[in-house]
Write a structure and sequence with these properties.
Elements (H helix, E strand, L loop, with lengths): L43 E2 L2 E7 L3 E18 L2 E6 L1 H4 L12 E5 L2 H14 L2 E14 L2 E13 L2 E4 L4
Amino acid sequence: MKGNLPAIGGGSGDSGEKDQAPAPDDTKTMDSSITWNTLIEGNQFNSMKLSKLTQNPKHATFTGDIVLSGSVVKKDTGYKFHVSDFTKSKLPLMEEQKGMLIVDFENIDDLQGSLQKANEEEAFIKFIISEYHYRSVDEQIERSITVNGVILDGDYKEVNPQ
């Protein structure tokens, strides 16, 4: 289905952020080296805001519309998304994140058709996401995204997240 792409922040190019006024006092902007102990609900990282934080188990939900690019990988446990190095810096990454970033999908049922097509063609794909989840349970770290739209081969498809 071809459609018009929504206007979403986080595109490539210089956004002029250097000339923007500082964030209001109630919203702290985090740098690229985030530690769990420095997280506070309402913190801002690029265009994502920390909207939910729990301590036990550790779970942080960041919200904000951004575009991520990369490739879909099929594993025994289902589909995973390998976020490109170019766009992973848009996400709020914890300081232990090094190298490749592979995430799960929160709304996998809504994405099955697009993921299967991308995997068959080994295509570069773009996802418009609204949430990024970071979970740490018993030293196991899980990351996932909620997808609102898929851009594949120039076609845009809207997704209805759960």
